Amino acid sequence: QVQLVESGGGLVQYGGSLRLSCTSSGSALDDYAIGWFRRTPEKEREGVSCINSRGENAFLADSVKGRFVGFRDKTKNMIYLQMNNLKPDDTAIYFCATCWYGIGEYEYEDWGRGTQVTVSS
User: Fold this and answer.
1) Half-sphere exposure in the Cβ direction for 88 (13 Å, CA)
2) SS3 call for 12
3) Which of 22, 26, 36, 47 sits CB 3.0–4.6 Å from 79 for a disulfide?
4) How many Cβ atoms sit within 10 Å of the Cβ of residue 99?
5) C-alpha span between 2 and 79 (Å, rounded)
6) Rounded to whole angstroms, how far apart are CA atoms 13 and 71?
7) What are the tens digits of pLDDT across the range 27-65?
8) Alpha-carbon distance 4 to 2, whole Å?
9) DSSP-based three-state secondary structure for 30
10) How high does pLDDT run on average in the chain?
11) pLDDT over 90 (residue 1)
12) CB half-sphere exposure, 49, CA atoms < 13 A
């Protein structure tokens, strides 16, 4: 089991940018595929991304393609989600988690407490 901690959320205006960070104090994230999902009052879980151990964006949701990108910094044991051109629909709690491709969709496990992202219109 991996213990993950998210940070970097906040309040941003429509069209703005944020960078979310994810780290683990007890595990080397190189060994895992790490991704992000988000939660809103309307939807328990929407997969956003999954970065494989090679640092490739194995998955980006259609709703964020062209705006979000995930990447790793192995020297810092960090995973990032760069979010550009943010929209009010991106407002959610974002969680980083281990990820893998399940039956028809990406699955997530071992998520942290999440970080709130709020985009004002």
Assistant:
1) 2
2) strand
3) 22
4) 26
5) 13
6) 23
7) 889 889 999 999 999 999 999 999 998 989 899 999 999
8) 6
9) helix
10) 95
11) no
12) 27
